[in-house]
Amino acid sequence: MMEILEEVELCFPQLLNASCKKPMRTPFEFMLSYIILSSITVITTTLNLLIIISISHFKQLYTPSNLLLLSLAVSDFFVGLLIFFQIILIDGCWFLGDIMCTLYYLLDYTITSASIGTMVLISIDRYVAICDPMHYSTKVTEKRVQVSICLCWICCVIFQILILRDNFKQPGRYNSCSGECVVVSDYITGFVDLVVSFIIPVTVIIVLYMRVFVVAVSQARAMRSHTASVTLQGSVKVTAKKSEMKAARTLGVVIVVFLICLCPYFCVAYTGDNLLNASNDAFVMCLFYLNSCLNPLIYAFFYPWFRKCLKVIVTLQILRPGSSETNIL
């Protein structure tokens, strides 16, 4: 009887002492974890897919700012798909092989880096829109944004391949037993990754948004003091400024939520803990995944155009000819 129990606790019973042991969990804990992760992946992928369809389909939404939101939605969509691997790991064992383990980490790190890079681009976009509105249309064009997004993703892929190069040379070299999924970088590589992927981008985001906040407050005060004396043309300008500041506030909420959700993840990830097998890191991972689920909800709450797009998509009006010309704004 004891031998059977010991075999049940192993990821690969046939390997005996070479196999990792499964963590002891009750059926209730197993089912609860499965239901929560499955729900998050369905909600995250569905909501972000709606964002992707909306911005890609409706021509009125082809703006530089929305292209950045599209890039963020793509990264959030892939995060939703990555949760599938966490579902596989509910029993604490990795059965997909060492190469897939390294590829999983590469995809995970690349998506995270691309999300942060996109947040930096969003901060720059709002900074120019609020602090230099006269030159926004010439400085921030669709072509430049498209190129910036492509470069962001390409650089993230190349950088993370370099970070994980030793793990690709010999996949699974850092696993202590069969059924474990671990990648390790040396101290210098890890420090460079921390600085380039987190510290510098987050610093840029915070500095830019502090500047945006200061300028937005000063503009709001100026508009209130001149509201009574504006002309019709001036009122149009004021409306435009209000629209830009509303967009800045909305994206500011997105960025604040982003930082709250990802900062704990990075703090734990760079202390050398194994996020995949450490149960005490469950809260950190939930925060990380929750961010990708929250972004579309923030859009739905703050952006009327997303609610209109959602109605058109759900009622299948999107299948009608010429639906891309629908007035969404």
Descriptive tags:
329 residues, mainly alpha, Rhopdopsin 7-helix transmembrane proteins, 11 helices
Anisotropy-based shape = globular
Contiguous uncertain segments of 5+ residues: 1-7, 231-238, 273-280
The chain-level structural class is mainly alpha
Helix content: over 70%
Major beta-sheet overview: none
Q: Termini separation (Å)?
A: 68 Å
Number of individual domains: 1
> From the coordinates shown, what is the CATH architecture?
Up-down Bundle
CATH superfamily assignment?
Answer: Rhodopsin 7-helix transmembrane proteins
Secondary structure: number of strands = 0
Overall pLDDT level? 79
From N to C, what is the helix and strand string?
HHHHHHHHHHH
CATH topology description: Rhopdopsin 7-helix transmembrane proteins
How many separate helices?
Answer: 11
Tell me the β content: under 5%
* Global Rg: 23 Å
The level 1 CATH classification is Mainly Alpha
